[in-house]
Design brief:
The complex is a heterodimer of chains A (about 160) and B (about 675). Chain A is of the alpha/beta class and about 160 residues long. In chain A, about 30% of the residues lie in helices and about 25% in strands. Chain A has helices spanning about 5-40, 45-55, 145-155, and strands at about 40-45, 60-70, 80-85, 90-95, 110-115, 125-130. Chain B folds into four domains: about 1-160; about 165-330 and about 345-400, no CATH class; about 400-520 and about 630-664, no CATH class; about 525-620. Helix content of chain B is about 60%, strand content about 10%. Chain B has 22 helices and 13 strands. In chain B, strand 9 and strand 10 (about 600-610) form a beta hairpin. Chain B starts with a helix and ends in a 5-residue tail after the last strand. Classes of the chains: A alpha/beta (about 160), B alpha+beta (about 675).
């Protein structure tokens, strides 16, 4: 405040330094954040998408949405774990799950399973969610799930937490 | 009839807010006192119309007037009265109307409180608020109109979303969140006014800070209530999952918290004006971004209701206010002259700067993780989300750093600090930190981050308590008697300071409780047949059987469990499955047995005849979070109570007390 010229120059220098430091910090942050995100992506796929992804499916976190194929459910009440097939119009994936399935789990219902594809050819499921529709419409007879509804289901965030 | 009247009120409010905004900006540009008077009248009129319109909607809801579209959409004669009343915010159109209602009250209240003050800034502030009011009126009148007529009117409606009927917390969580979210409009208007006027004087800091602190208190409590609701209702046994709707509420809270801190530096040192204003504007922008994300259906959740058409409209509004803010900042930020400078990095103000840096990093971390999937979907059309490990890995170090600053910052004096002073301030709290660490270790804590959190937490708690009672101790040293010293030093003159440290104390407990409850949690999934028992985490759980209960709006299957410890019965727990008429799937409601140390949590996965699939969770310290956040809210309110006369600020350590106004 006492010597305006000197302090002005000083201030400009400080400001330049601040802007530079800020830019470096932002760049570093973006690199770290991008690394963190790309390592932790969760893909929303249907069985068809999963087959199309090929090797990318192994080890990746996947939220797989589809219908429980008829007559595919095994080990429903046993402690050995649950096995079933998830299918869409053109693909089918075998799923193995541990833990207790939710109340509504049955054949021919929309499900979302979260887990990863193993090289042994089955999908190891850590979380099993039954289509949780927040809209209030009466249950349709022979409820068939179309792709759009599947994707909406996968995006549903409530009740999908660990 | 009701619908027509409602539509009329909304159209009137579009007109009033638009006209009012023009008058207010003109009054600001011309510095016309008469213009200010008129803009105040328009502000009150806008509030009146909004309150009236909301009253009309509540009337329609309570009388089950199904000729009003919104009532036909969410109303039902089968649900209890409280559900009918809170149906106002149970779906899109009503919740936007409720937004307008709260905005109206905020605008009118703030205008009235400052009716004779800050005449320089008020017209621009009112103009900005009413512009926001105009946008929301337009939203209610057009894309989200709850007052459309239905002809012929149905005899019965479906009732609101069953998830929202499932718990009483739904009565308070949404209003709290709205009070927080909508309230951010007020400091935004003040900040815009300061930029438009090109000046931010010392006397204007008080309304600016107060208008930020009030919504901050509401938002703090609302975020906690949302987590608590998820914990009590959703049955997955947690309170936070980095879900986009949760992040949406956290983002403005982070920037607002940063702004509250930088405002203190601004007040004490006359610096960081432009920065504080930027943070305030960011907070408002983030509330609108949050509204876009949660309300437009880009994320499907209990918050997104039906597919709606308001997304693009909100996006346009977001773009407009973003441009408005950025341009205004670019043109005017230099006019908010710094009056001082920061002398030393290792000082109270230096720590404030670092604190702000970490809050901003925190905000960007959450923002990037939340928005990234949206950007990918918009560009590539692929759907994905960012997994929880990203957030945990990024946020835990930042949060720990903030806890560290929460201890070190307040311990350091303002200004230049000598080495000796620094050591004297920083070393003693290490003892409390070490004690907390040892206690945690004795209780079985082994996670490195949790141990560090305990160390920093103990440290910060020591500093917080020392600072909190400093004015009282100074008075007692001077020979004052206890009671008057307590009231005068803590609650009258030092209220802001005291309130601030109460918030800090609450925050320390929250940090520790989050760390402990998330790393010490254990869970098990079991299938039990009637009469069968299982032992888990010190308790024996016995499945006694089920019972059916029918209520007008739902049918419940209640499973009864006996909980025993060392053979002694402790309690009976009754988690349930609720089947709502309008829903395919049943919704579980978990049962929680809370003790001071921990929660024992039972959630039903499924019931098949005599068998029940059960999730048992043992969560230590989780109840501390709810209490500690309430403490933070209480601290905020203590700091908020306006000083009747001048406020005195006590400067730490034997420095003479100085008059707050004298800094100006």
């Amino acid at each position: 405040m006492t010597e305006p010229t000197a302090s002005d120059a000083m201030r400009r220098k400080t400001r330049l330094f601040m802007i530079g430091a800020f830019a470096v910090a932002i760049a570093a942050f973006l690199v770290i954040a991008y690394g963190g995100i790309s390592k932790n992506l969760v893909y929303y796929w249907t069985p068809t998408d999963l087959h199309a992804a090929g090797d990318k499916a192994y080890g990746a976190t996947i939220r797989l949405g589809g219908m429980v194929a008829p007559h595919s459910v095994k080990g429903r009440n046993g402690a050995s774990g649950l096995e079933f097939d998830v299918k869409d119009a053109t693909g089918i994936v075998h799923v193995k799950s541990t833990g207790v399935p939710p109340q509504m789990f049955r054949e021919n219902i929309g499900v979302v399973v979260e887990g990863t594809m193993t090289r042994s050819g089955y999908f190891q499921c850590n979380r099993l969610m039954v289509s949780h529709n927040n809209e209030y419409r009466a249950p349709k007879a022979g409820h068939a799930v179309n792709r759009e509804e599947l994707q909406k289901m996968m995006k549903s965030t409530e009740g999908l937490k660990d | 009839m009701t619908a027509t009247f409602g539509r009329f009120l909304i159209l009137a409010s579009v007109l009033v807010s638009t006209t009012g905004a023009f008058i207010a900006y003109a009054a600001g540009a011309k510095r016309s006192p008469e213009g200010l008077k008129w803009s105040q009248r328009f502000a009150y009129a806008f509030a009146g119309l909004m309150v009236l319109a909301t009253g009309v909607m509540e009337y329609a809801l309570i009388t089950h007037d199904f000729s009003v579209q919104y009532v036909a959409h969410v109303g039902s004669t089968q649900v209890p009265l409280w559900v009918t009343i809170v149906s106002l915010w149970s779906s899109l159109e009503g919740s936007i109307l409720f937004w307008g209602f709260i905005l109206g009250i905020y605008i009118a209240g703030t205008t009235w409180f400052n009716r004779n003050e800050h005449q320089e800034y008020m017209p621009f502030a009112i103009g900005t608020w009413l512009s926001c009011g105009a946008f929301f009126s337009f939203l209610i009148a057009g894309p989200a109109n709850p007052f459309l007529s239905v002809n012929p009117a149905p005899l019965e409606g479906p009732g609101p979303n069953p998830l929202l009927q499932n718990h009483l917390l739904m009565i308070i969580h949404p209003p709290m969140l709205y009070l927080g979210y909508v309230g951010m409009t007020i400091p935004f208007g003040f900040a815009a006014a300061a930029l438009l006027r090109g000046r931010l004087g010392q006397s204007f800091l008080r309304p600016l800070r107060a208008s930020l602190l009030l919504p901050w208190v509401f938002l703090t409590i609302a975020i906690m209530l949302g987590g608590w609701w998820a914990y009590e209702v959703l049955g997955w046994g947690g309170y936070w999952a980095w879900d986009p709707v949760e992040n949406a509420s956290l983002l403005p809270w982070l920037t607002a918290t940063a702004a509250l801190h930088s405002a203190i530096v601004m007040e004490r040192r006359g610096v960081l004006k432009g920065w504080t204003v930027t943070l305030i504007q960011a907070s408002f922008l983030l509330t609108i971004l949050g509204t876009f994300m949660t309300r437009s259906g880009v994320f499907n959740s209990v918050h997104s209701f039906t597919q709606s058409s308001i997304g693009p409209t909100i996006l346009v509004f977001l773009t407009v206010i973003l441009l408005f803010s950025v341009i205004l900042l670019a043109l005017r930020i230099d006019s908010l002259e710094s009056e001082g400078r920061i002398e030393s990095a290792v000082s109270r103000e230096g720590m404030f700067l670092v604190n702000n840096l970490f809050f901003v990093v925190f905000t960007f971390t959450v923002l990037v993780g939340t928005v990234f999937p949206l950007v990918v979907e918009a560009i590539k059309g692929k759907q994905m989300s960012v997994g929880r490990p990203y957030f945990d890995a990024m946020v835990v170090p930042v949060g720990t750093a903030l806890l560290f600053l929460l201890g070190v910052g307040p311990a350091l004096p303002w200004g230049k600090v000598s080495r000796k002073e620094m050591l004297r301030a920083l070393l003693p709290p290490l003892i409390t930190g070490a004690v907390a660490l040892i206690i945690g270790y004795a209780f079985g804590v082994r996670n490195a981050w949790t141990l560090v959190t305990l160390l920093f937490g103990g440290y910060a708690m020591h500093v917080t308590f020392a600072q909190m009672w400093l004015p009282l101790r100074q008075r007692l040293k001077k020979g004052d008697s206890f009671a008057p010293a307590l009231i005068d030093a803590q609650l009258r003159r030092g209220r802001r300071r005291f309130g601030g440290y109460v918030v800090h104390a609450g925050a320390v407990i929250v940090f520790v409780a989050i760390a402990v409850s998330s790393t010490m949690r254990t869970q098990e999934e079991v299938t039990l047949t009637r009469g069968q028992s299982t032992a888990f985490a010190g308790y024996t759980v016995t499945f006694l059987g089920t019972e059916e209960r029918t209520e007008p709006h739902r049918q419940s299957t209640i499973a009864r469990f006996n909980i025993a410890r060392n053979g002694q019965p402790v309690t009976t727990m009754e988690p349930r499955m609720n089947q709502y008429a309008a829903m395919r799937e049943p919704i579980g409601t978990p049962a929680v047995h809370s003790t001071i140390g921990r929660d024992y949590y039972l959630s039903i996965m499924n019931i098949q005849g005599d068998q029940v699939g059960l999730l048992i969770i043992n969560m230590p310290m989780v109840g501390w979070i709810w209490g500690a956040v309430l403490l933070m809210g209480a601290g905020g309110l203590i700091a908020l109570i306006p000083a009747r006369r001048r406020t005195y600020v006590v400067v730490p350590e034997s420095a003479p007390t100085i008059d707050d106004e004298a800094i100006a």
